[in-house]
Write a structure and sequence with these properties.
By secondary structure, the chain is mainly α. The chain starts with a helix and ends in a 13-residue tail after the last helix. About 75% of the residues lie in helices and about 0% in strands. The chain has one domain (about 5-285).
């Protein structure tokens, strides 16, 4: 394996691990909804996630000389708004449709960042895969317009998260995830407290809350920051399309949710697009320099 191939495969593997972690955390977060609501779940996820990252990374030690504070604050606030919007959408529209609508953000980055006809082929495969995987036709007539607006807001947030995350990572290194999560928590925690009140601090929630914070925030955001600064934004946008298929696979393995033939074809199309993106990225222009540890 060549050195360049290894430099491409490593961030792809790291991103895949982050997406698996995120999906496992989402499964845990669903159990918090009846207790503290969507707003409370986001508050716990980002608040505890930020505390864990600050203890592990201690980002305040390396702030001297950093300049791109607007990108960092934009990244952090976007992270908070994206999570709030997505969880609010899940209250009134099905998860699959919410994921499909949110994914418009990364797809737009992939499309606008394309320079070769091959890139459009991968985007087309992703669109076909999502169309087969998600139950848009059967449930479109029953969609709540407010839920759709929240999901579209999450789509805008996801696109901005990818773009601003690259800039923040270039300036603040691997500490950008810790700093950005803390900024996102500044937005999400007050909203969660206003909604759930004292229930947010119940000790009985602590084990579940820690699991959600680690799996949904601390670990995946750190892994994604590693990837965002090593691959082009368009490549990251398409690679993240694996997320819906990961959810389907984990549902089959842990929840015994059996898939139809069309859903398996959808997963195959999405994985093919991701593999094609990984292979074609060998010829892409170099992205940002690797971050310091």
């Amino acid at each position: 394996m060549s050195r360049h191939t290894a430099s491409i495969l490593l961030p792809i593997g790291v991103l895949l691990a982050g997406m698996i972690s995120f999906q496992c955390g989402a499964a845990l977060a669903k159990q918090l909804f009846p207790l503290i609501g969507a707003q409370g779940a986001v508050a716990i996820r980002l608040g505890l996630g930020a505390l864990i990252l600050w203890v592990v990374r201690r980002p305040w030690r390396a702030l001297a000389g950093k300049r791109d504070w607007p990108a960092l604050w934009g990244y952090g606030l976007t992270l908070g708004l994206m999570n709030l919007s997505f969880y609010m959408a899940l209250r009134t529209i099905p998860l699959g449709i919410a994921v499909a609508l949110e994914f418009i953000g990364p797809l737009a980055i992939a499309l606008f960042g394309s320079r070769r006809w091959l890139d459009f082929l991968w985007v087309a495969l992703v669109v076909i895969g999502l169309g087969l995987l998600l139950p848009l036709r059967d449930q479109a007539h029953a969609l709540d317009p407010v839920g759709v607006m929240y999901a579209m807001g999450a789509a805008v947030g996801w696109a901005a998260y990818i773009l601003l995350g690259r800039r923040a990572g270039a300036s603040f290194g691997a500490d950008a995830a810790a700093l950005g999560t803390a900024i996102g928590a500044l937005l999400a925690v007050p909203v969660g407290i206003a909604h759930a009140g004292g229930a947010l601090f119940a000790l009985s929630l602590l084990p579940l809350a820690l699991g959600v914070a680690v799996l949904s925030s601390a670990l995946p955001y750190s892994l994604e920051m590693f990837t965002l600064t090593r691959l082009p934004a368009a490549t990251v946008g398409i690679l993240m399309s694996i997320e819906p298929s990961l959810g389907a696979l984990l549902g089959m393995l842990f929840l015994h949710e059996h898939l139809s033939m069309l859903q398996w074809l959808a997963i195959a199309a999405i994985i093919a697009a991701s593999m094609g993106t990984a292979l074609s990225s060998r010829t892409a222009e170099p992205s940002l320099e690797p971050l310091p540890p």
